[in-house]
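Reminder: ligand-aware prediction takes two inputs, not one.
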Amino acid sequence: MTRQAAAYRDRRVPLAGDAALVHPPIGGQGLNIGVHDAVNLGWKLAQVVKRTSPEKLLDTYHAERHSVAARVLGNTMARTALRRTDDRTKALGSTVSEFLGMDEPRMRLAAEMSGLGIRYDLGEGQSLLGRRIPDLELITANGPVRVFTLLHDARPVFLNLGEPGRFDITRWADRVQLIDAKHVGSWELPAIGAVTAPTAVLVRPDGYVAWVGDQTQEGLADALTTWFGPPTAA
Ligand SMILES: Cc1cc2nc3c(=O)[nH]c(=O)nc-3n(C[C@H](O)[C@H](O)[C@H](O)COP(=O)(O)OP(=O)(O)OC[C@H]3O[C@@H](n4cnc5c(N)ncnc54)[C@H](O)[C@@H]3O)c2cc1C
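Here is what comes back for the chain with flavin-adenine dinucleotide:
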């Protein structure tokens, strides 16, 4: 059986990793969930402690991570059930194996087990929204750089892939790194394949896309405020 805490935070006490759940290690996902919890929570806690963001930012921790772990727990129960040795379970196992011989189910399961298929519900929008940004090779004025390298400082990144100066984030410049860059080639996500290349993306310190730009700045100020606090005075 599996168990999960009903709430991932009670006032000043957040739960992460195995403190929040109990499940059989089958499938080997416990460590992955725990590290992912910590990375999701860490930058939010830092911003709230520094008073960059209001406390309600911490509510997004439960909203994002509880459902991901609940799904993993469901998977581990299904896998545990498939280990039974009675004839019916063996027949079910053969059927599941046949499905996993097909590309689509195999890709989905692999994306789910690795955590690369996660999509946080950040509202309607382009398929990148709420998903982990791919580790693209970018070309900048300072030479080539990979996206994940830009995240090493655990600070948000605004990636402008269009004309330099097209987007104005001056009032968040104390918190958000603005990078003008180009990317040659397609955008490919583990769970869903190729996606339309955006003009700009706002990336959270945990690597998840908080806003996707398509020529206009619509919704950008809201996304910046939601995730990285109110703007500095003009
Ligand atoms: C047999 C087995 C195989 C596994 N295989 C995999 C795998 O292949 N892949 C995978 O991703 N996961 C696997 N897991 C799961 C994985 O090990 C856990 O999900 C992961 O270690 C949880 O990390 P955690 O930091 O949340 O908790 P823990 O690793 O349990 O760390 C908690 C730490 O807190 C310490 N502690 C507890 N109470 C106190 C206290 N009062 N004061 C101070 N310190 C305290 C403990 O000593 C411990 O060091 C496996 C688990 C088992 C049991």
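The first strand starts at residue 3 and ends at 4. The chain has a mean pLDDT of 94. We will return to this case in the review session.
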